[in-house]
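Sync notes, pocket subgroup
Present: LS, DG
LS reminded everyone that the earlier model was apo-only. Rerun requested with flavin-adenine dinucleotide included. Inputs:
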Amino acid sequence: MTSGIVLTGTVGGKNWEGAFVTRSNTLLEPRRIAIIGGGPAGAFSGLLLKRLALQAGRELEVLIFERKEFGVTGPRSCNMCAGIVSNSLIRQLEAVGVEVLGSVVQREIEAYTLEVRGAAVRLEKPPGARIYTAFRSGGPMGERFGTERSFDHFVLQAAISAGAQHIPQVVRSVRLPSNPQAPVVLEDATGDEHEADAVIGAFGVNSRMVRSFEELGFGYRAPRTATAAQCEIPLSSEEIRTLFGNEVKALALGIPGVSLAAMIPKERHVTVSLIGRDVGQRHLERFLQLPEVRAHFPPGWQVPENYCHCRPRLPITAARNVVADRVLVVGDAHVSRYLKNGLDSAFITASLAAEAIMAGGVGRKNLVHRYARPCRRVFVWDNLCGRALLAVHHLLGREPRIAAAHLRFAALEQQRPGPKPLNAILWGMLTGDESYSVVLRRALSPSLQLRLAWAAIKALCKPGIASQEYGAVSADSQEDNDGH
Ligand SMILES: Cc1cc2nc3c(=O)[nH]c(=O)nc-3n(C[C@H](O)[C@H](O)[C@H](O)COP(=O)(O)OP(=O)(O)OC[C@H]3O[C@@H](n4cnc5c(N)ncnc54)[C@H](O)[C@@H]3O)c2cc1C
């Protein structure tokens, strides 16, 4: 990484010219970037860096360190997740020339159903939208899906096809010399050392690398996290088709400690995902025994003795100090949308990072200006709005009569021509297709709030309304929604 430069000047009236061979300014124009982690954030970073370098006609070597074999089944090779690939991610990927392969898609989702105790509303996918479900690894424990079914394998391959180099190793340590022109050194688990002009941390929040980065001394502090309890329930394709269809079921059952609960259909499994402050296997087992949950499974169904399950963490705040000279952190290890669309967030942070590096190099000042601040603008305010919305959603789950009245209100909107504000709010919130701030602004509309408050008051005055069946709108409830 050296380059020749020629300096000229005048000393004492005499011209001089001197040729020096120096190290090129690697802060401004890095030639080799190492990425720790080949999950979505790392793979997207590698893909986009290579694409931009090619467009700019610049030489850039990108090394992606990833030890997991994503094609293998079970939690060890999996970046544990519910596996919903959102409409916005599909579109963003297509915009950079990457089309999600059919082999990765387990199911194409047609609708979301939001359920509270005794009531539910089905929200149809808008025309043209696409939402897929996928497995991050080769599939759940005991399955025999192949490598080509893994979403993470697919994105890592896309980065490799763009020219990134995959090093199938875990990074054990990172050395960051104080001289900004000296290379960063990564030591892998075999003891081999790798030099790079800059390092991108894309290690997520479930890795020991989080602590190593905090100890690097540039001030990085990892995001605070929530826990999730998740499992894959095997069912036959026929059972899934008849009992779940192509619908994600979001359940707001007001379970203490559980902020979000969802059931996501795959080809031969249903992923059950609970997220909360400290949820674990006990929550999952109790959840699977609830009558509202069992109602979705075949009659007489018993929780299997062995099933694939995991307890991953996910970020609920943004990390602090995510950049330094030659270092930046992307994906979950930096920030994600609050309890939603982590894969999209990985793409957004990766694309902002790649653009920042190509536009101004890997010096701290440039990375603060072009990467860290734009990320804050995208996520911080929006996540506050998301927290507020999800807190209300959770509270409503604990007051089933009000929640049921709101869902009936949403069902009635569907029967009428014209705008459907509550449907738009629920769809945006559940799928993440809209930013939380847009959803909150819509939700705060005084006329909608008045109508919802009126529906809630009527529901509270009318005992037994919570047992209304989903989607079945009685003449009585039609009246509830009229004229308010
Ligand atoms: C229960 C749950 C459900 C979710 N559901 C969804 C969903 O349906 N849709 C959605 O969009 N998002 C979902 N998410 C969020 C999504 O999983 C994450 O946001 C996303 O995986 C973040 O990508 P990442 O690359 O930053 O981190 P990760 O996916 O965690 O990837 C990090 C990678 O770094 C590697 N690594 C770590 N340390 C090292 C090291 N030292 N050396 C080499 N490699 C290393 C790991 O092996 C891993 O492959 C969910 C999350 C949870 C917990």
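DG: The longest strand covers residues 2-11.
LS: Residues 364-397 form the longest helix (34 residues).
Action: DG to write up.
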